[in-house]
C-alpha cells in the first residue's frame, strides 16, 4: 500500500505514461497523413505538368504511356512503353519527342529522335 503523499505522484506518473502512449499513436497517424499528403502533392504536380503539356499540344491526339524498359546497349536512345497497337499506337508515330520503332499489341519500342540520324542518309 502506498503512503498518501506517494499516491498522487504515482497517479500522475500513470497519467503521463497513458498520455505518452496516446501521443505516440497520434504521431504515427500524423506521419501516415503527412506521407499520404506528400504523395498526393507529388501526383498533383505531375498531373498539372501533364495538363499544361496537353494544353500546349491541343491540336494533337495524345495517349499517355510509361517507359517500362530501356535497351541496355542504347540506354538513352531506345525505350519500351506500356502502350501498343491496341491503344492506337503505330510505327513511326512520335512519342513526345521520340519515334516508334516497333509496335506490339500492348507495348511499343521507341527511339529518341536525336538518334534518327541513321534513317536520314
Brief write-up:
This protein has 121 residues and is α+β, with helices and mostly antiparallel strands. Helices cover 42% and strands 16% of the residues.
For this entry, give a set of tags.
121 residues, 4-stranded antiparallel beta sheet, 42% helix, elongated, disordered C terminus
Describe the structure.
By secondary structure, the chain is α+β, with helices and mostly antiparallel strands. The protein has one helix at 6-56, and strands at 67-70, 78-81, 98-103, 108-112. The longest helix has 51 residues, at 6-56. It is elongated, with a radius of gyration of 29 Å. The model is unreliable at 113-121 (pLDDT under 50).
Note the main sheet. Answer: 4 strands, antiparallel
Structural class, from helix and strand content?
alpha+beta
Shape: elongated
| Topology, number of strands | 4
Q: Please mark out the parts with pLDDT under 50 across 5 or more consecutive residues, or reply none.
A: 113-121
β-strand amount: 15-25%
Any idea what the radius of gyration is? Answer: 29 Å
What is the tally of helical segments?
Answer: 1
Q: What pattern of helices and strands is seen along the backbone?
A: HEEEE
> For the terminal residues, how far apart are their CA atoms?
98 Å
The strand order across the widest sheet is 1-2-4-3
- Average the pLDDT over all residues and give the rounded result: 75
Amino acid at each position: 500500500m502506498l503512503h498518501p503523499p506517494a499516491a498522487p505522484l504515482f497517479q500522475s506518473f500513470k497519467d503521463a505514461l497513458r498520455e505518452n502512449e496516446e501521443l505516440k499513436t497520434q504521431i504515427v497517424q500524423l506521419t501516415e497523413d503527412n506521407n499520404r499528403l506528400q504523395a498526393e502533392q507529388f501526383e498533383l504536380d505531375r498531373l498539372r505538368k501533364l495538363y499544361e503539356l496537353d494544353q500546349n499540344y491541343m491540336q494533337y491526339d495524345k495517349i499517355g504511356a510509361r517507359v517500362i524498359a530501356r535497351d541496355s546497349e542504347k540506354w538513352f536512345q531506345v525505350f519500351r512503353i506500356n502502350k501498343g497497337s491496341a491503344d492506337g499506337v503505330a510505327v513511326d508515330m512520335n512519342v513526345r519527342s521520340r519515334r516508334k520503332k516497333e509496335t506490339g499489341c500492348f507495348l511499343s519500342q521507341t527511339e529518341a529522335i536525336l538518334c534518327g540520324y541513321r534513317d536520314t542518309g
